[in-house]
Amino acid sequence: MAEAEALQDAAQKKKSKLPLILGLVLFLGLGGGGFYAVYSGMILAPKAEGSAGMAGTEPAPDIAFVPIAPVTISLGKVSDNHHLRFTAQLEVNKPKAEEVTALVPRILDVLNGYLRAVETAELEDPDALVRLRSQMLRRIQIVTGEGRVRDLLVTEFVLD
């Protein structure tokens, strides 16, 4: 009788592994198929709106760039001998480029005043350029008037 029970237990152990293996194979197959379907764009892909909505086919915006003369500003005390070298360009709407170019001296004055007021410790912060750029852009837009300057592109920002 003990042998019959031992054979029955062995048979049950073998039976219980088969559903586990089948479940694992099915899991891997469906997971791989789902990944491929999403990765290839068969499902959950954004719908194409025709050739007009595709990237790269849109016409380039009507913009121009107005260079701002390099600005060198002494920071802190004269004895510290720290300087900031700043160069940028303004992204403007092409029809307004001449008007903005005529206002470059005022823009330089605003930038000089703002950058001299900023603390040296704030300039040394790695995240400072984002904040400074938005502050300078807002001041430039006030000087030039709304709708003329689209963006401020900082091409050089060197602390010496």
Q: Summarize this, please?
A:
This protein has 160 residues and is an alpha+beta fold.
Question: Could you explain the architecture of this structure?
Answer:
9% of the residues are buried. The protein is built from five helices and three strands, in the order H-E-E-H-H-H-H-E. The chain is 51% helix and 22% strand. It has a three-stranded antiparallel sheet. It has two domains: 52 residues; 97 residues, Tetrahydropterin Synthase, Chain A, CATH 3.30.479. The longest helix is centred in the first third of the chain and has 39 residues. The chain is of the alpha+beta class and 160 residues long.
Q: What is the N-to-C succession of helices and strands?
A: HEEHHHHE
Radius of gyration: 33 Å
Main beta-sheet strand count, sense and barrel state: 3 strands, antiparallel
The general outline is: elongated
Structural class, please? alpha+beta
Work out the helix count.
Answer: 5
Number of strands: 3
Distance between the termini: 93 Å
The CATH class assignment of the largest domain is: Alpha Beta
What's the domain count?
2
**Averaged pLDDT:** 84
CATH topology of the largest domain: Tetrahydropterin Synthase, Chain A
Low-confidence stretches: none
Proportion of residues in helical segments:
40-55%
Corresponding CATH architecture of the largest domain:
2-Layer Sandwich
